[in-house]
Amino acid sequence: MKPYISIVIPVYNESKNLKQLFDRLTTTLDKIGKTYEIIFTNDGSKDNSGEILEGFYKLRPEQIRIIDFSRNFGQHMAVMAGFELSKGDIIVTLDSDLQNPPEEIPKLLALAEKGHDLVSGIRLHERKDNWFRRNISILVNKVRALITNINMTDHGCMLRAYSRNVIDLMIASNETTIFIPALAYTYATNPTEIKVDHEARATGVSKYKLYDLIRLNFDLMTGYSLVPLQVFTIMGLSIAFLSIIFVIFLFIRRIIVGPEVQGVFTLFAILFFLVGIMLMGLGIMGEYIGRIYKEVRHRPRFAIKKVLGAQLDEKNTHIRY
Ligand code: UDP
Ligand code: MG
Questions:
Q1: CB 58 within 8 A of CB 131
Q2: Which of 126, 149, 181, 240 is the most buried (most CB within 10 A)?
Q3: Model-level pTM?
């Protein structure tokens, strides 16, 4: 039977948080009184999260679906797999570490039912992350706002509600390097935002290491904007223009004053600076090319070991055993 609401939750080593999440989530959803399904994607957890999830399935086999990945494919792929399996009219995502309180879901649903095809939570008040994460995230939000035309306040919050239509378009986009909130935004016609509560991670530590964060944020920048490349074109043009003026100046100076020997180190400093910029430009080009390469290989985006509580159908084109 087709449920009205689909909840999609990625799980990676969250064994200590799952029980509380399940209780609070089912209590909230039961109170709403609409039909629902909860799709957990076990993203290759190394602890016993998988067994705990199976336990939930046994408790409520009509409502719980479990996707078991063959290894860790990352949060965004885990959510994408959940989307592919989902059948609800309204789809809600949240994290499994209890940073997004399930009690906030009715707020999102109310807005979705008013016709908003994307409802994004924003963690404005009392965001409970450490200083470093908070400030990196504020900085990335600013850069993203500057270089992409995605007009959202907080792309890091996964507590969101989507309409079926937006989800279907996201599934059809079929990309390997995706950043779900940004992708949703490109398809939404009537998006809105709402402040939601944000708690500190209940137990465990963030699954994102510094390197993952950098990679994910590059996915966001390169996936939705060509501005980083254009900055280098413009910078290259300006530097070339300035060099011509400099050459002309040196030439005239040579005729009038004679050749210049001093100031070699200044020249080195300028040169090293330019080499640094060039390397950075190459790096940014590489970020795009690497992603193009990943895309053209057409590899399945993730591999699934098993699914509980649902049948895979033709729609689930990326789901392979
Ligand atoms: N997650 C996942 N796969 C990963 C990393 C994270 O499914 O490779 C899940 C994780 O279990 C959590 C959510 O994605 O439910 C957000 O991860 P985390 O809390 O570590 O990120 P943060 O809140 O620090 O941005
Ligand atoms: Mg978290």
A1: no
A2: 181
A3: 0.86
**Which residues have a beta carbon within 5 Å of ligand 2, which is an ion?**
95, 97, 99, 201
Gap between the Cα atoms of 226 and 222, Å rounded: 7
Q: Give the separation between CA 106 and CA 146, rounded to whole angstroms.
A: 32
pLDDT by residue (tens digit) across 240-272? 888 888 888 888 988 898 877 777 777 888 888
Alpha carbon distance 41, 278 (integer Å): 42
Nearest-CA residue for ligand 1 atom 6 is 75
Look at residue 320 and tell me whether its pLDDT is greater than 50. no
Domain coordinates in residue numbering, the chain? 5-225+299-320, 227-296
Query: 38-68: buried (b, 16+ CB within 10 Å) or exposed (e) per residue?
Result: bbbbbbbbeeebbebbbebbeeeeebbbbbb
Return the CATH superfamily for domain 5-225+299-320. Spore Coat Polysaccharide Biosynthesis Protein SpsA; Chain A (3.90.550.10)
Ligand 1 contact, 208 CB (< 6 A): yes
